[in-house]
Amino acid sequence: MTELSWAQVSARRLQRHRLRTPAANAAPDATRVADVVSAICGAHAQIASAAELSIGLRVPGTTRAVVRRALWTDRTLVKTRGPRGTVHLLAAADLPMWVGALSALPAPSWERSVVLLTPRQTEQVLAAIADAVADADLTTAELTEEIVARTGPWAGDLVMEAFQDKWPRWIAAMTAATRAGVVCFGPNRGRVSTYTSPTRWLPDFAPMPGPPALAALARSYLYAYGPATPAQFARWLAVAPGWATLLFDSLDLTEVTVEGTPAWVSADDTDFPDDQPSGLRLLPYFDAYAVGCHPRERLFPGAAAERALAGGQAGNYPVLLVNGVVAGVWHQRRSGRSIRVTVEPLRPLDAVQQRALGEEVERVGEILEGKASLTVGTVSVGPHA
């Protein structure tokens, strides 16, 4: 059995996530954007600027305009709900795999506990959504009108809890609609989200069958985050660990140990670098590397666990990554083109790292199409501020 050090695992993940220090003055390469998003199994996009930064940091020369063009003009990216039901940018070419896999996941317990639609009503709502968004970008209010017109007033009943408000009944089918590939996000209309059909990205779109889609997704996950355990894969997808264990048992995987702890990689992907993890990066909210890599105590060592995690959850703070592990937090505040970046290191940075930090802050400004300045000091805002 292959014995691996944490340094080998960390170096491989940095390489797979394209987080090694990029070449200086590299020309933009829009064709690589979708490939990089595919390699990291999607970019979290609840905060649009965070997704743009996650991608831009990994593709030299890329700006937020390049990412937006890939999403809304070239349509090599698609905005939809991915792992854990959270909003992600995914590679459009991967959408059949994602939809096939997500449709085959067991329903979470919270979803089974609230029944607002009968199976027949859910079918009617899904058909109505597909018809309404076939050639249109619709807001929630517009989609509600279209669905009610196609199904009946019951679909618009305000019965679903929504913070301090109520949503129409049909919203209970939105998770199923996303998983089935019936709907994805369209371009925002001002500050309002719209929804549309994935067939506008992939005209011949059809989900992969469940079993091969799940196998492909597991291999993609292990490429980006391996070696990993079934429990870690289950946490990434928000499913039961026992279900993930059965899936791993059905695949052609190779067991390794990471400093004595068993983990798995795909049987045809067992190469690991011998060099040390290196480089300094500023990762935004919910960056894939910070959220998906485990064990968390290795990625967030010592004081980083207390400072950069929120109740054990990763992603709520943008993090300073030094040599593959979290070594601080940071925050940006924008006013026009001016971007004030405050970085709070948790340990002293040497001269080389200080210079790298300045270059990274400059890169953040370039990606977000502004002028960034650096302050090293305490980050005073709380999580997800």
Automatic annotation (TrEMBL):
Q: Which UniProt keywords apply?
A: DNA-binding
Name any one Pfam family assigned in the record.
Answer: AlkZ-like
Q: Which terms in the Gene Ontology molecular function aspect does this entry carry?
A: DNA binding
Give the protein's recorded name.
Answer: Winged helix DNA-binding domain-containing protein
